[in-house]
Amino acid sequence: MQRTTAKESLLAPPPILPPPVKRPKAKKTKKAVVFFEVEILDAKTKDKLCFLDKVRLLSSVHPQWYPARQSIRLDPKGKSLKDEDVLQHLPVGTTATFYFRDLGAQISWVTVFLTEYAGPLLLYLMFYFRVPFIYAPKYDFTTSKHWVVHLACMCHSFHYLKRLLETLFVHRFSHGTMPLRNIFKNCTYYWGFAAWMAYYINHPLYTPPTIYGEQQVRMALVLFLFCQIGNFSIHIALRNLRPPGSKTRKIPYPTKNPFTWIFLLVSCPNYTYELGSWLGFTLMTQCLPVAFFTAVGFIQMTVWAKGKHRSYLKEFRDYPPLRSPILPFIL
Ligand SMILES: NC(=O)c1ccc[n+]([C@@H]2O[C@H](COP(=O)([O-])OP(=O)(O)OC[C@H]3O[C@@H](n4cnc5c(N)ncnc54)[C@H](OP(=O)(O)O)[C@@H]3O)[C@@H](O)[C@H]2O)c1
């Protein structure tokens, strides 16, 4: 039996509603045919948007609200139904009322990530090559005399190139789109911080780490590279949890790759490694805006990791109890 999803085919169950075909004599177990009547109200104003007594798509009544921008809820303030939800399995009678919210214009996740990550990559390089109108004209297209500045540029570019390639070839996202307005917020965050960090690191008056000197830079590079490999390993492990084209979510477990063994203690080790990478970059450059970016990223990732950790606990009864959201035994 085909399934009728809550959103895409708007809560109407065409596959289970064929007009009864008369097949004389053939004795078959009778299937109860259920007819649904569905009314959709605006979640804010409670105005009736449409009433469906037949199989129809909401987007055929209101073409401006294509399925990706629809949020359909059972309760005006409740959670959105999932695309996979089936009307027959929802706690509604044969007359159901649903609430609709417009999620706004949507944009694909891949476009979002590519825009978010290509910006910092290119912006940083503009500062590194000291293109005109950034520093005093006498410094146009000059290069820094400090080797750590060149190393930092390599690390920064490597990080964002890796993220771009992972977005294209590794991640298997479950959501196709996100609201267009988010891209402005996210780009301001990533582009703004990249420009701020790059300005100081590539500044002609920049001074390399002085506390422990070269040894500090070497240690920082080791930490950075270690965490980049770790982060990539986790992304591969997450990818392998989800067969192509599916939205399956499973409990991630350590694999043969030692970088994934941290799954024993942490729910979102990709964020743990991401934090480690930026700590490494902070140590390497000893630059305040980098430390600030690391701190803000850490706060954001902690919020997300806690949410994901809670979802795992809710979804999987046998979820390993030893795990913390982002930092083993701490947070
Ligand atoms: N520096 C910063 O401020 C910062 C902030 C955030 C992220 N990042 C970086 O960006 C990377 C990606 O971030 P993200 O928030 O998208 O990471 P994420 O939520 O952990 O997701 C990574 C990928 O794995 C999938 N996935 C996650 N858990 C899964 C599970 N249990 N079963 C199957 N698939 C699963 C996700 O699919 P879904 O589409 O279903 O989620 C997504 O495709 C991070 O690892 C980090 O390196 C950096």
TrEMBL record:
Cellular localization per UniProt: Endoplasmic reticulum; Membrane
Gene Ontology biological process terms in this record: very long-chain fatty acid biosynthetic process
Molecular function GO labels: oxidoreductase activity, acting on the CH-CH group of donors
Chief location of this protein within or outside the cell: endoplasmic reticulum
Protein's UniProt keywords contain Transmembrane: yes
Assigned protein family: Belongs to the steroid 5-alpha reductase family.
Ranges of Pro residues composition bias in the record: 12-21
GO CC annotation terms, alphabetical: endoplasmic reticulum; membrane
Residues spanning the membrane: 107-127, 186-205, 217-238, 259-281, 287-305
Membrane-related topology note: Multi-pass membrane protein
Region (Disordered): 1-24
InterPro entries, alphabetized: 3-oxo-5_a-steroid_4-DH_C, SRD5A/TECR, TECR-like_N
Domain 3-oxo-5-alpha-steroid 4-dehydrogenase C-terminal, residue spans: 177-331
Highest taxon, organism lineage: Eukaryota
Alphabetized UniProt keyword annotations: Endoplasmic reticulum, Membrane, Oxidoreductase, Transmembrane, Transmembrane helix
Alphabetized Gene3D superfamilies for the sequence: Phosphatidylinositol 3-kinase Catalytic Subunit, Chain A, domain 1
Organism expressing this protein natively: Esox lucius (Northern pike)
Protein name: Steroid 5-alpha reductase C-terminal domain-containing protein
Segments forming domain TECR-like N-terminal: 36-102
